[in-house]
């Protein structure tokens, strides 16, 4: 568990390694202009802008994928490109949205082979086509380290996007799929973004709060709890652990890209009866005014700026 510090605890001479990702964001955006009505800014899976048309919301997301952080140099080029887009699509899914357009930025070493670069884009394009997503532009730049930056635009039309901040006392807590070992077993390169599942949960007004699990349940669930200003209780025996891995893997490994969401207690049974997808759904706990806001010290999810 990362003990919380206010941005006031740090000076301009503090090192990045002394902060968590959440603390850095708090510092960077502290003095920025706050968005007005109809806009959801920093702190959710996507930014949300309400359109002039009734019940139309646009979703915006920028996502970076870096060599030696999100993939190995030996990872297949097509799967590197696929993952870069899949990560951004997972955030659209977490809002219950439909993806529309994407911009692709890439940083490449001057000694990289053209064939590898081409295969990266083939991986991006294949996944984009499978979701009816249009690639409408991008950027290329020189870099010592390979990286991709995906900017994606989506929407919810006829229904509101699901935010992280809607959970209330007594809501049941669900997760799709299984958790843990994703990077080790290769799932992180091959996962299917839960666009259909997220949209179904949003359109049917099942989920009260939702996000995707990218940094591990032990990192992401407390983010949802803080956004909703409520604690949580977890049944560790009910957490769906990938075969061959431990509960610690399931809580802290990250790179799962499953949906984590809350449902009103009275809808729980109906949800399970009507769930139309093959991917398993598991109740792992509930939100409570008397619940915790973090996990025990031995469980800590992924953080870009903290040592493992």
From TrEMBL:
The keyword ATP-binding applies. Mg(2+) 1 binds at residue 63. Keywords: ATP-binding, Kinase, Magnesium, Metal-binding, Nucleotide-binding, Thiamine biosynthesis, Transferase. The keyword DNA-binding does not apply. Residues 43-154 form the PurM-like N-terminal domain. InterPro entries: PurM-like_C_dom (IPR010918), PurM-like_C_sf (IPR036676), PurM-like_N (IPR016188), PurM-like_N_sf (IPR036921), ThiL-like (IPR006283). Its EC number is 2.7.4.16. GO terms for molecular function: ATP binding; magnesium ion binding; thiamine-phosphate kinase activity. Mg(2+) 5 binds at residue 215. One of its GO terms (biological process) is thiamine diphosphate biosynthetic process. Substrate binds at residues 70, 255, 302. Pathway: Cofactor biosynthesis; thiamine diphosphate biosynthesis; thiamine diphosphate from thiamine phosphate: step 1/1. Mg(2+) 4 binds at residues 45, 91. Pfam families: AIRS, AIRS_C. Catalyzes the ATP-dependent phosphorylation of thiamine-monophosphate (TMP) to form thiamine-pyrophosphate (TPP), the active form of vitamin B1. HAMAP family: TMP_kinase. Belongs to the thiamine-monophosphate kinase family. Reaction mechanism of ThiL seems to utilize a direct, inline transfer of the gamma-phosphate of ATP to TMP rather than a phosphorylated enzyme intermediate. This is Thiamine-monophosphate kinase.
